[in-house]
Design a protein that fits this description.
The chain is α/β, with parallel strands linked by helices and about 210 residues long. It is built from nine helices and six strands, in the order αααββαβαβααβαβα. It has a four-stranded parallel sheet with strand order 4-3-5-6. The protein has a two-stranded antiparallel ribbon with strand order 1-2. α5 links the parallel β3 and β4. Bound molecules: zinc ion.
């Protein structure tokens, strides 16, 4: 049931943001209250714009700013034919893809899982885009030689990697690609999102 107090209502919304607790959520609301009308109008406008111009790529599932063509359903990375078609890197979230792209050490294609699988989860297929991943791999056909599972080095990331290796096993045998895992660099336990370009480069060259 919705509260009649907008401070509580908005705090409740912020509380669902990644990594935000109830106190921080409240702090955001008080911050907004301290801003002028133009700031709030612009914020509302930008939130409204998000779903208008940002689209989800049909291939890799990342969110992208579709300013180039209204009919285009693929992002610039997936449309870039100069990339290596033999490589597909599977990452947890959009922000991980951004980190790998920024490192400049990878020239293949991507797939964004949209999450991770908690240990002993009853519906693992619901937590990640497993079906869409298998559809994309089928579409890639014989050009695909390697699927790099680039999940984070934490318990859920490892669990997701284990799940994917089983999930993709038959397809790998049939379609003739191998499944590799990122090598763990110096920063064990860290997430791709926070890894520096050298760590990503090393993790890629030490994949196994
Ligand atoms: Zn894409």
């Amino acid at each position: 049931m919705s509260d009649s107090n907008p401070i509580n209502n908005l705090s409740e919304i912020f509380r669902h943001f990644p990594g935000i607790g109830p106190r921080q959520a409240r702090r955001f609301v008080y911050y907004l209250l301290s801003q002028d009308r133009f700031f709030l109008e612009n914020l509302t406008k930008q939130i409204g714009e998000l779903k208008k111009t940002i689209q989800q790529c049909n291939d890799c599932q990342r969110f992208f700013n579709n300013s180039y063509s209204a009919s285009q359903s693929k992002c610039k990375i997936c449309l870039d034919s100069s990339r290596d078609p033999s490589l597909l890197m599977v990452v947890e979230r959009d922000i991980d893809l951004d980190a790998v792209e920024k490192s400049g050490s990878y020239r293949g294609y991507y797939f964004v899982l949209g999450g991770t699988i908690p240990i002993l989860d009853k519906d693992p297929d619901e937590k990640i885009r497993a079906k869409l991943l298998s559809d994309l791999i089928k579409n890639k056909g014989a050009s695909l030689e390697e699927v790099i599972v680039a999940t984070s080095a934490h318990t859920e990331g490892d669990n997701t990697a284990d799940y994917l290796q089983v999930f993709l096993r038959d397809m790998a045998t049939q379609n003739g690609f191998r499944i590799s895992l990122l090598g763990r660099g110096l920063s064990t336990g860290s997430e791709l999102e926070y890894a520096d370009p050298d760590t990503i480069k090393n993790a890629l060259s030490n994949r196994h």
